[in-house]
Amino acid sequence: MGNSRYGGKKRSMSSVNSVLNSLVSSLNLDKRLKEHTLMGLWPTVVGEPFASKSRPLFIDHEGSMVISVSDASVGQELSLMRSQLVKRLRIAGNGLGIEIRGMRFDMKHFHKKEETQNYGAAVEAIRQKRHDNTPGAAELSSVVLCEEELAEIQALKTRLTAADGENSQIHDRIVGLYEKELRARKWMEANVTTRCQLCADPSPMLYGSQGLCSTCFFASQVRPAQSEDALNH
């Protein structure tokens, strides 16, 4: 009878896990993690000196990665490299299950985060709060991943190797970034109470009057016309 009872609990827990996995998929939370992983690969894809003069903001609904640039000249130089950069991102994205169809550039929002942090002592308090709500190396290593999550990490590595068996260092970088994003998400789920009002993801800092995470905030601010026009002025 005891075995039957525990077996029932195990089946019940399995059922709960199945529902949670379906919920995660339906909310595209796993997609957001993979998008963040791909965006985290940008410095490796573009290299210096452009890595310090540009940063990805989000991936739009058409599959284009929106890149914020420090000035128009950087945007113009990256535009000349667009096809090569998109090809690299597409290869990495295929392994993650993210389709990259293009790239566009935005100059308006590169300094946005810096501009919001220049208001003296009040902003210093915000900085400290954000630091407290952001996991460091110790916090990330303390996060325990379940069997399903470990299996997903291994499956990602297998997919990357199958797609391209010649770039193991890049594969390791992608897998490492994905695991870091996954651990950070789990840590914030348990420790951060502020959530984006649009996607409901935990966020250490919210932007704008609507209270959005950085990804949703920039997606709401950047329009296709703005991206191209910014480089022409």
Kindly describe this structure.
The structure is a single chain. The chain has one domain. Helices cover 62% and strands 7% of the residues. It is built from twelve helices and three strands. It has helices at residues 2-26, 29-40, 42-46, 72-80, 82-96, 112-115, 120-132, 137-142, 147-163, 168-191, 214-221, 224-230, and strands spanning 54-59, 64-69, 102-106. It has a three-stranded mixed sheet with strand order 1-2-3, sandwiched between helices. A hairpin with a 4-residue loop joins strand 1 (54-59) and strand 2 (64-69). Helix 5 (82-96) crosses helix 9 and helix 9 packs antiparallel against helix 10 (168-191). The radius of gyration is 20 Å and the shape is globular. Mean pLDDT is 79; it is low at 23-27 and 114-131.
